[in-house]
Amino acid sequence: MRNVTLHAFNWRYTEIIENLDAIRAAGYGAILIPPPLYSDPKGDQWWQRYQPKDYRVLLSHLGGKRDLENLLEACHSGSSRIQVYADLVINHMANEARADHLNFPGEAELERYKAEPALFAENRLYGDLNEGLFSPWDFNQAGEIEGHEWGDRGTVQSQNLSGLPDLKDSDWVLKQQYLMVKALVEMGFDGFRVDAIKHITEHMIDNLADAPAFHDRFWFGEVLTGSENDEKVFLEPFLRETWMSAYDFPLFQTIREAFGFGGSLRALANPQDQGNALPWNRAVTFVVNHDIPHNDGFRFWLLDPQDEHLAHAYILGRDGGVPLIYSDHNESKHDVDRDRWLDFYKRPDIVAMIAFHNAVQGELMHILYESDVLLVFRRGEQGMVAINKSGTEQRVDLSTWGLKNPGQYRELIQGQTMTLSGNQFSLSVPARSAQMWLLG
Description:
- Pfam families: Alpha-amylase, Alpha-amylase_C_2.
- By secondary structure, the chain is of the alpha/beta class.
- It is built from 13 helices and 19 strands.
- The chain has two domains: 5-362, Glycosidases (TIM Barrel, Alpha-Beta Barrel), CATH 3.20.20; 366-439, Golgi alpha-mannosidase II (Immunoglobulin-like, Sandwich).
- It has an eight-stranded parallel β-barrel.
- It starts with a strand and ends with a strand.
């Protein structure tokens, strides 16, 4: 089954439908859409989607409920089914400057519901829009997370994230979250990304992921970690307490170090065995996610563009995990990012890498050669990946054992061919390049 997931970051739902043929042709098996819960329809800033006003309404700058229904139908029909995952924001509600800022959606919105009944009836997900959803009693009101408190799990779960009102895991809040997800599942969503999940209690997570009605969906969380202490305090408990998948931040940090100055590609040979990657069946792997370009505190995590290319070859070539490919519309405020991820989803090298990934799924990974600057591994007899991070060409003599012999292989990124025969063959990998060889 195809499992590469396109993160259609800040794409309008109609735009996804318009580009669905290209998305299918590129080999994607799933699409992660931005948070669909009600946010300011006039708010074109991407972060508006992460500030929900009301669980009971599907309406934002990106479209409404009818657009989502059309998207689900289009993805689930056609030549191959594409899974659709919704980004869920359940830790908090919108940070709004109004007197009743802990009432949601608030008196002004309730009046708008009454003034525009057709609009909100069309976009209603569930519930009675004549009544409020949350009141001050539904929020922790424990203040902001500050300084050293970011390392304390209890504080991170109970206090506000950047001024965003933090929801309690009370019976009423849990009921509304359950009803919201139930309605999304009934619409046809195949899975969910849970935003800021390290800020959410185990009770709140289990209320959704452990519910029998939702258990067959694909669930994954953003457990953002950047240090060994973060992994101990947040990630390890998450893995023990839930069955959900998570962004593979340990692997991402290993990739950063391996491609960094003085780093070694040997670290990427078997990272899970060294505790530097999540288990293969619980990992959502990535090279770029939306927080890294847009949050000034994380921009130092960005790889050099060519290293980013090599890292994508690695996550799409290796065995394990669900690869997530980020593609945006130049939302970054930094000029240096201009066009870097625009239409990234269909860039020829990425499409070639996805073709390799889809062709070798299920084939075991075996290391053929490793050094500080060169990593070569095979996937069964079907394929072989070579990554050279150095500034000079690397040549290595390799055994044909485990590969098709004799066998004709085609390199998908550059288009060369190679015939293997005998006991050994010589592989030449140009400077700062990746190769993905596929049988046939």
